[in-house]
Structure formats: C-alpha cells, structure tokens
Write a structure and sequence with these properties.
Layout (H helix, E strand, L loop, with lengths): L2 E6 L9 H17 L4 E5 L11 H13 L2 H7 L34 E8 L2 E3 L6 E2 L10 E7 L5 E5 L11 E5 L2 H7 L4 E5 L6 H15 L2 E4 L7 H4 L4 H6 L3 E3 L12 H20 L7
Parallel strand pairs: 1-2, 1-10, 2-8, 9-10, 9-11
Antiparallel strand pairs: 3-4, 3-6, 4-5, 6-7
Helix pairs in contact: 1-2, 1-8, 5-8
Length: 285
C-alpha cells in the first residue's frame, strides 16, 4: 500500500482563476513526488459551490497529466481548456519520466510507459513506433518492461507494484472519505490538523504503528476548513476510523497555512520518521 495522501475537492477554493489553480496543483504534485507518494486521493466534501464543482476533475486531470511522461502527453491528453496553463507545471523528474531514447539504447529490464497508436504499434518514446502483438490502451499509458532486444524488441506489460523503486503516483477521486478510511484499516491513518497534538509528541507511537502496517494514509483538510469542518456530518465516523491526529507545524508564524505548505511540511516529517518503511527507494538510494 505504501504512502497514500487524501486531499479534499475544495483544495483549490483559494485560487481565483485557472492559472492559479494549475500552479497550485503543480506545487502539490511536486511535494507528492518528492516524498514518494504512490496514490493521491481527492475526496468529495459536498462543500463545493456549483461554479467550482469541476475543481475535483481538474485536480485529478492535472495530477494524471503531470505523472504522464512528456513524450506521451500529446497522445494521452488532447488539448482542452483545463490544460490551458499546463506549460506552467513543473516537471516531476521521477524515474517514471525517462528521457527520449533511441531504440538502440534500450536494454533488457528497462521500463517504459507506452500507448497503442494503432493495432500492433506502440509509442514508447524511442523516436519511432515499435511493434507489439498484444492490444493495449490508446488513451491510458501502460507500463512495459523490455524483455529482450535481440533478435527483436519484445515487451511485456507490468504493474507499478512490480517495480522496486519509486515510479510516480496514481490519482483518483472518491465519493466517501469515511469509506476509504474504513477500507484502509490495515494502514496507519493519520489526519493532519493544527488543533491536534504536536507531531513530536506522537512520533514514537507513529513509528511503532507504521512498523507493523508498513503503510500510511495521510489525510489533509482544505485551505479554509479542516477535515472535521468539511465533513461535519461524519465527525464520529472519521474519528472512529483514524489512528492519529497530529499537528506538523507547531507555533505557525502565519495566521493560515496553505494546503501546499502543509503537505510539504507534513510529508517531510513523515519521510524523516518512517519514509524508509513505507516508501520505495527513490533517487540516490
């Protein structure tokens, strides 16, 4: 299960236009990738006004766009109004974003993202289409491992779970945070809140618990409301299905802490305490 993070569909309510929203998602995605989050969950709150209800779709779409290697983006994401400012998004530079290669540079064991352009032909970012006998998606990238290159290139489809190192994140939207918490009982469920005890007071207990579960689901509130405020009708269920409530920015010097700041600070502490337990190896390991 690794490290998963849940953020609300209200995550962009403090942004006035699409440009600001795009920039904010870029900051969030970079934080997720830096600290080796494997799954980003956008949970519905019922608090979005009608004009902002597309924000949850925008969040997932931009996260997916950023996780897709550059050489496939034009094939996977036709230009739409939601991607108007995609050029402002920073590159993730994860292992899942290898540079373009020549086919002669491929070797057995290499992993590439690919999409089917037409039956029997794939784009895996090697300068031209390559042959593949199995049918794959033309819209959703497939992970492919190079089995052999001689006498001809042979590829096999694999899952992210089969890769031993960090390979970016998946993103999805869910309708119920409570259901997600309940289903994640085998993980250590941590809710971040400025009203909670300081992280260092609970750190030893968190380390002990995570050592058993080997996974974390971290839950954040929105820019203007915490988790319990966003889901006020489900307070007791949320409390019953969480393991820790922690404050990771004790004595904050500003009246408010932005979501992207909270995510960065919180994941940094998690990484320091238990990153070697819950996350796959990244670069330089």
């Amino acid at each position: 299960m690794g490290l998963q993070v849940a953020i609300p569909d209200t995550s962009l309510v403090d942004c006035s236009d699409l440009r600001q929203k795009t920039v904010k998602v870029g900051l969030l995605a970079r934080a997720m990738a830096v600290f080796r989050v494997e799954r980003v969950i956008v949970y519905e709150t019922g608090k979005l006004r009608s004009k902002a209800k597309r924000d949850s779709d925008l969040l997932v779409r931009l996260f997916e766009f950023m996780d897709t290697p550059q050489y496939l983006r034009k094939r996977v994401f036709p230009m739409t109004p939601s991607l108007k400012f995609a050029g402002l998004l920073p590159p993730l530079r994860t292992r899942s974003h290898p540079l373009d290669l020549e086919i002669s540079e491929l070797s057995a064991g290499m992993i590439r993202w690919g999409v089917q352009v037409r039956f029997g032909k794939l784009d895996i970012g090697v300068g031209h289409l390559v042959d593949h006998s199995e049918t794959l998606s033309e819209r959703t990238p497939t992970l492919l491992r190079v089995v052999e290159t001689d006498p001809k290139l042979r590829l096999e489809a694999i899952n992210r779970s089969e890769i031993g190192r960090y390979w970016g994140f998946e993103a999805e939207r869910i309708t119920s945070l409570v259901n997600q918490l309940s289903k994640s009982s085998n993980a250590t469920r941590i809710i971040f809140s400025r009203k909670a005890p300081p992280y260092d007071r609970l750190e030893d207990e968190i380390i002990s618990t995570v050592s058993n579960t080997m996974s974390i689901l971290g839950i954040f509130g929105g820019p203007r409301q915490g988790v319990l405020e966003l889901l006020s009708d489900e307070k007791e269920a949320i409390k019953a299905n969480s393991d820790f409530w922690v404050n990771t920015i004790v004595g904050q010097g500003t009246q408010t802490v932005r979501l992207e700041e909270a995510v960065l600070a919180s994941l940094a502490l998690i990484n320091k305490s238990v990153g070697n337990i819950v996350a796959k190896p990244g670069f330089y390991e």
